[in-house]
Request: fold
Amino acid sequence: MLIFEQSTEGRKATAQMPADSQMVDAEKRVSELPAALLRKSKVPLPEISELEAVRHYTRLSQKNFSIDTQFYPLGSCTMKYNPRACNSLAMLPGFLGRHPYAPPEFSQGFMQTLFELQEMLKAVTGMRGVSLTPMAGSQGEFAGVAMIRAYHSARKDHARTEILVPDAAHGTNPATAVMCGYTVREIPTDGEGDVDLAALKAAVGPQTAGIMLTNPSTLGVFERRIQEIAAIVHKAGGLLYYDGANLNAILGRVRPGDMGFDVIHMNLHKTFSTPHGGGGPGSGAVGVSERLLPYLPVPIVDKAADGFRWLTEKDRPQSIGRLSGFAGNAGILLRAYIYMRMLGRRGMRRVADFATLNANYLMVELRKLGYEAAFPRRRASHEFIVTLKKQAKTLGVNAMAFAKRLLDKGMHAPTTYFPLLVPECLLIEPTETESKQTLDGFVGAMREILQEAETAPEIVLGAPHTLPVRKLDDVRAAKQLDLTWRADVPN
Amino acid sequence: MLIFEQSTEGRKATAQMPADSQMVDAEKRVSELPAALLRKSKVPLPEISELEAVRHYTRLSQKNFSIDTQFYPLGSCTMKYNPRACNSLAMLPGFLGRHPYAPPEFSQGFMQTLFELQEMLKAVTGMRGVSLTPMAGSQGEFAGVAMIRAYHSARKDHARTEILVPDAAHGTNPATAVMCGYTVREIPTDGEGDVDLAALKAAVGPQTAGIMLTNPSTLGVFERRIQEIAAIVHKAGGLLYYDGANLNAILGRVRPGDMGFDVIHMNLHKTFSTPHGGGGPGSGAVGVSERLLPYLPVPIVDKAADGFRWLTEKDRPQSIGRLSGFAGNAGILLRAYIYMRMLGRRGMRRVADFATLNANYLMVELRKLGYEAAFPRRRASHEFIVTLKKQAKTLGVNAMAFAKRLLDKGMHAPTTYFPLLVPECLLIEPTETESKQTLDGFVGAMREILQEAETAPEIVLGAPHTLPVRKLDDVRAAKQLDLTWRADVPN
Amino acid sequence: MPFIPHTDADVKAMLAAIGVDSIDRLFDEIPPALTIADLPEIPEGIGELEITRLMHRRASRDGTPLCFIGAGAYERHIPAAVWQIAGRGEFYSAYTPYQPEASQGTLQLIYEYQTMMAGLTALDVSNASLYDGASALAEAVLMAVRGNRHSKSKRVLVPTTVNPVYRATAHSIVKNQNIELVEVPFSTASGTVAPENLKAYESGDIAAVVLQQPNFFGSLEDAAMLTDWAHQRQALVVAVCDPSSLALLKPPGEWGAAGADIACGDGQPLGVPLSSGGPYYGYICCKQDLVRQMPGRIVGRTVDIEGRSGFVLTLQAREQHIRRSKATSNICTNQGLVVTASTIYMGLLGPEGLRRVAAVSHRNTRRLAERLARIKGVSVAFDSAYFQECVLRFEQPVAGILQELAQRNILGGFDLSEHYPQLGNALLVCATETKTDEDIELYAQTLAEILKK
Amino acid sequence: MPFIPHTDADVKAMLAAIGVDSIDRLFDEIPPALTIADLPEIPEGIGELEITRLMHRRASRDGTPLCFIGAGAYERHIPAAVWQIAGRGEFYSAYTPYQPEASQGTLQLIYEYQTMMAGLTALDVSNASLYDGASALAEAVLMAVRGNRHSKSKRVLVPTTVNPVYRATAHSIVKNQNIELVEVPFSTASGTVAPENLKAYESGDIAAVVLQQPNFFGSLEDAAMLTDWAHQRQALVVAVCDPSSLALLKPPGEWGAAGADIACGDGQPLGVPLSSGGPYYGYICCKQDLVRQMPGRIVGRTVDIEGRSGFVLTLQAREQHIRRSKATSNICTNQGLVVTASTIYMGLLGPEGLRRVAAVSHRNTRRLAERLARIKGVSVAFDSAYFQECVLRFEQPVAGILQELAQRNILGGFDLSEHYPQLGNALLVCATETKTDEDIELYAQTLAEILKK
Ligand SMILES: Cc1ncc(COP(=O)(O)O)c(C=O)c1O
Ligand SMILES: Cc1ncc(COP(=O)(O)O)c(C=O)c1O
Reply:
């Protein structure tokens, strides 16, 4: 039942209303505002009691799968355990009550924390400068490509109008390149999951502004010839952009800076375990090599003799400017800092070690059941792809059906149909915080579903059976648009 | 699955372990303790990761009905909405970090709050003195009866060895009387739900120490002739004890002090909405008339010129002493204070008004469906009793079956089989925080269950069908005691 | 090292199953030259006890000054229930609802959020969220240019009464798509856009006109006039509003004859703590006919195979994971958790609650402005009506005054001299419903003392 | 006025259904003389915003001094997950699991708690909880007297090394059931019960002997000797223990030849904040043969009608709602929510974690005691081994010293002179794992300064 269907005219959560004593003089002041600028129409918010609100939203939450309640191997999303201490400490009154424009003397605790986060991210990625303002990976990508553009423009190198993007790249890559005024040229991937070097050589030229790479790639394999790729692109005058979504696989072992990348973004809500919150918020901190330092988005925290201060447009005239109202998703930055301090030096490396161990273990165990790995001759990184094209063809049961049936087994499904390159694709990322027992449980479930697909496919095709709703009609949702509840429209 | 069945030897939530740096010198110090006093045997706690603990206990919570998720009309328990502000403000660091033996200069904020709570409880109940130390209603009863005993002993009135207890009284009443060294004499209730005055007159005498009364009684009706009862008992030299569990019905309208009670207990977790927490904690603050002031349990907060201080045995030599290690369930007292300040003067009275309106409305609506009220000719107080003896006899479907079927309808059942006086009894207490719509939903469910009992009784008898478990075997639980998990015992 | 459950026995068994003798072997595809042995600059890991101690020290160092700064982030009382529910694991640790049947909690909540925001702005449709108010303006501008079937130009008029940081952000985001943000001046008497300020843009093809109401100074623009002016020139109207004012002020959907086409802004004033600048969330609403141009996620209602009502992400074809380079926006992760909290806030406050909070905030700022203007050397800068924020003029640079106030634990407001030198010594002040009359009096007395020196 | 959802229309419809014209009529059975019109002394209701402001002021007034007081309440680091999960509505706002099928969350958790506590104490059974450590001792004494089939007497030996407030509380609770608590002196040299202290009670019928380990002074008693001594005289042994020490110290179930019969105490040190004295929880465990004498709730495992494993309240016949005046105890509401948090704490710490916390707490107190004893005029009072708490002797009254320390924001410990005058100027100090070496050094330097004056 929607909250609006529980609304009762005149009902109020009175404890949340400013008291009558506060309203004294308030109505008079409002009446002094120009009548034409005042709202006449009713505000269609629900009229409910505090108990009704608490009950409604508490029960709604129970309908969600989440890391706190289920195994959530959603490929390319790094759904690792979000430590509760990161939440409680980021919400300490001192941080929570601080106005973003509070002067430096009321901001040293906050700014020192951000400064140290910048330093740690530089060390972990091998980059020379970091800005924390991008609000998520996509805006980090935008900042990265915008910096590439600023770099070429400053050198009057206006012919460079093209960004190379591997066909396996995440959709945000091409979308970002276009937002930065570039045309996108896709580079194919070869059978072993590597970027097709020949195609790359053919594609680079004076028109190449840069290439957007993910390493390990979204195919779950490490880009083995990254050094050659870097040389090819750099030789052609282009820059290398690194999509940091898969940093979890190589944390503490390999640094993008050492791979020759000029600019990177990181997804703090993936690698550094800030909450995915039903879709966000995230943080897309960006790192740059020496030559792109002047273009970093502002503000950036700087450590001066007399304490920490903000570097703004005045200090960085060539900066690509601001990407948000203040300084990025502050609370998320605090959470990432807390997580990194708890991991510490050796903890970082163990993240990559055990994320990779878990992925390779799962790949091997699933192959024993007869599932087909997309790249059988490759090591899994922190994730790997299983293709169900055989099952789809022979049993008529595709990847979506397997995914829905996994929900019945009490586990969130892996990412489906991404990257588009691999047919009937399941992109599986267990993360390092899951135990062997949980992985064995997943393997057990995949065994059951395979048997069901062979012996009683209708069970798998009709899944999910055990959730608040059965399979939902996407097509109808797009055809008969119902994006806002209306009292007059029967549901 | 039990947490122990997820235990993996050697697994640790390392972030919670004191770091190795802290363990320096610790093992040495432990080794210097007498070996005979050190534990050799393994500590059989589960060895799990932080994620496994979070996932296990988050999923466990989802199996509970609660006020935050369902209508919870448990008679005599006042399951009203527990405002979230009471929780967050009682857990402010200043209160949470304070050691109970912190000296006065570090306790003024806390003690002022307790002092003002004492004053408000005096005003609301019409009593002359209040002590906040009793840990729940039962310990409040103990304090009350112990004060009655102390009063009579001080007057060398040792012949008074008997406490009168109405047959409808809560089990804690007689249990408490016995704990205080008294013998219990039950007083019957007449057909209209009133204490049988004739029986009372016959029972009182020089052996009467006092009477324990609940008003409104556990039968859900107001004890109309309370003034006569008071006169009878007082004339015989006995004192009146008031079980305050049903204070919600008369808050702001009638005060126990005005009814002639000498000593009362209140259940702050009922009337003043502190959390029921899966069984507690509660608070059983006690109030006394003038003559029992010297006997109040210590410590009590006193307002002196230079600030607030504790009154202890030294200040109250005749006190019945201490009932707990410190000063009662401090955090619960803070929550009750916050709730009372939000209710305020007029809010108190509205609690009684709307708790009573809701109870009478439900009683009328259920009677329209054919349910039988235990006391049809009486007003409901904040709760009322429906007897299903007719349904049990004619349809073979008893109160327990109705209760279990209500769980399937998404509502917690009323209290069943209490008071024992009324056969196949449902004691229904909606509380004032539930809306008419929720009550109508309850009536609708009771209508459906009645129809099911008439047309398909096996559905009702087999209930619950929709919960994590179906009906559980109580008899077996008592016969084959399994109170502790053992690795070797198969479940 | 924390958050790794593997015991030695687990590792041994897993390596055996994979058929390698060590974890290092799993990295054998990585060129050795790229492999590092250690991260020397990263400090050793610390346990929860130590990090708790450290962060408590850091948080308490920043103190709790009395705050009269608005300028895009407003101190609100937030009901305790809001974040206690939003912090539940099922909301906190789920992700984008790619599997709708396993995410009906998040999906229904977003559908309710979309309904509330469309209702507040009196427009037809809302998306699930954008990053914040500033980037939402950029997306709204891109959407208006995409959605304007009449205008060929990519010229967008943006009065300088719109939040300067919003304008700067919009510029840095749209500048590479040859969109021209044309700054329109304002009347320094009224602090709002006057008809004569529009003279220079009478003719010429304009794709859209942006209008912030109340504007950055808190002054109330003639929204009807500007909306009709834009529509008469086939330009779309992009409204920028503090959503917590819309229970009191005329909503964008009711501006002028046809109403604004797109409304956007920051949802922070609806239940999101100041939290040092974020995470907040951007909202964006539009008329039905522009829905296919909407950036970001949108939730739609549908039915399951047994006819039960349910919710899914819809119109995904616009989005980057399907349309890739032709997507309406590159946004993927949005501000989900913050929208969850804000939706609970709007449910708890309801129409009457929002109206009262707005009215009390307005009252408090009016009394603050009047009280401060009684001090010699302090005056209200503009003659226009204002809402919840107001500009005061001083006879000396504001920076020094603010520093003195700060030393006495008061944050006096936002210094306008950097962005609006033409306004002289101008200070933007705001007193929300969290301020008491005593707070206002304390500010006035402290200021009077400072100005006396 | 808050928390009442009824609109005027609701009230009108409900009164009509009942058949009365006003709510007042529903109270017509109440004698008018008893009815009051108003509560003049109660202040007007205030909204959440105002009460938030008030309580923040009250909480901050009490400061955050550095705390070296133990004496029954110990400052522990509590993992953030503990109370974020215990505060979930399904744990916070459920009640006693009277309907087991709708309360499997609480019931299974209590079953796991019972298993953990029985394991920690090395006894067979635990109940669901009692109020706190002090009242748990009273219940344990009543239980021992009930359960002792050999002794007719109701005499219970209680060494004065047992927490004095526990002893006072036990006395005020049991005194009306003619149970005699006989105080047994201790050796002021060792701070523990020596064999000669038992001489006077060699013969005579004793129902039980109480033994706190470590005792109130932190000193370690000869538990084996005392346990066997009691059993040789058919007396039951009631152990009083800080459960967080039992990962390190020999558990009551392993004392002497047969082990203690009953163990009780306060669970505060296992994940419960100091919180100004409560709510904490009392635990009580016993050997299998005493289970029917257990006070309070107990959860047992059983199966449902389809063979599924499930949990119920069991052995309810002992309890007040069934046995009424013959119940083992009058307890009904217990400390449910606190046990929920403590169970999560024990799960998170596990055996290794508990052991480490106990070891570090012991190390910190040892270093504190040694460091302070290096100051002239300060010495360790007893020659016995101690754990996590230690008594220091001064050459001047402790009260004055504590006041001086308090002025410097340090709570130096618990002054023993009131309860133990025979010990002279004695101070009970404790430094748990939350204290750093810097904290200890700060205490020492501050104390040295004070004593120099
Ligand atoms: C490979 C890859 N790149 C980029 C992104 C975009 O990051 P965000 O969702 O933080 O905007 C994602 C997000 O899932 C991703 O998986
Ligand atoms: C009528 C009555 N009296 C006394 C009590 C005992 O109070 P408590 O549970 O707080 O010990 C109860 C508890 O439910 C009760 O309903």
Observations:
- Chain B is about 40% helix and 10% strand.
- The pocket of pyridoxal-5'-phosphate (ligand 2) is lined by residues B 76-77, 136-138, 170, 172, 214, 218, 243, 245, 267, 282, 284; D 332-333 (CB under 6 Å).
- Chain B touches chain C through 24 residues (CB under 8 Å).
